[in-house]
Amino acid sequence: MVIAKEVKGMFKRHLMMLIALLLLFTWGLSGCAGGASKVKIGEVTRSVFYAPQYVALEKGFFKEEGLDVELQTTAGGDKTMTALLSGAIDVALVGAETSIYVYQQGADDPVINFAQLTQTDGTFLVAREEPGEFNWSELKGSEFLGQRKGGMPQMAGEFTLKKNGIDPHADLELIQNIEFANIAAAFSSGTGQYVQLFEPQASIFEREGRGHVVASFGTESGQLPYTVFMTKQSYMKKHKDMIQKFTNAIYKAQVWVGAHTPEETAEVIAPYFKDTDMDILISSVKRYLEQGTYAKTPALQEDAWNNLLDVMDSAGELKQRVEIGSVVNNEFAESAVQASSK
């Protein structure tokens, strides 16, 4: 009798444990079905240059698509690509040239561009001294604080200098050994007569009297798939639905920015620039809008892609020309645009 009771007790305990596990499993499935899909983005820097991304977050466009987006800043293209390849992030917002570097290395799992955010260079030429009427020839013999070798800002910068009759490696002292995140601080402390800066840093330096914006590399270098959302091919194949929803949200943000004033956009993105005054945010957004920096749709254009290849080739960073279809998938961008027009 005692043994029978013990067996009965053990059976009852096991049955209760089994029921509990089944309930937990059911609740887990329910939570996954009803909850948002988690997506980790790594942005190459924090800049007004990426205003539509912050609009997508703040206006709830990602949430509308059922996505829970976590944003982190991984300063520098090399660090951002390392984070993507290692799986530390799911999607990278970085220059399209990084996907070409991975492709040139013969990667088994290439990185695919699927949604363009910016379509011009986002840097400005900032002079330490206030010039009269600026001429590019003034850079000859100067000390120029550039960007990281092989990065899109540096390549577009060199492309622009050559276009204006300046050999960046012979006609001036080109400084390229400073970390991306420290370039503004280096110029502020006295390094260089000229520097290449993104917004809002360029506007901040102007207001504080530490520099003067004299030219736009975005205007000079033409249209480029400058900053693009990309992911590994393997991730894209497993998460096509998520990539589509992500692209839908970005397109909604692009349309929103195109339809609103710099003041309205600056107000929305202000939480991402808590140490930046509103007038600086407004002037930064206005500059980018005026030069057509923000892409109107997520699709990468072939003529802009070919311009990118020309820029890379001029910088000596292109082993061979890479066809746009090798590392670009416009399917999601085209679907996003078509869906919104219905």
UniProtKB/TrEMBL annotation:
Name under which the protein is recorded: ABC transporter substrate-binding protein
Pfam families: NMT1_2 (PF13379)
Keywords: Signal
Organism expressing this protein natively: Paenibacillus aceti
Subcellular location: Periplasm
Stated family: Belongs to the bacterial solute-binding protein SsuA/TauA family.
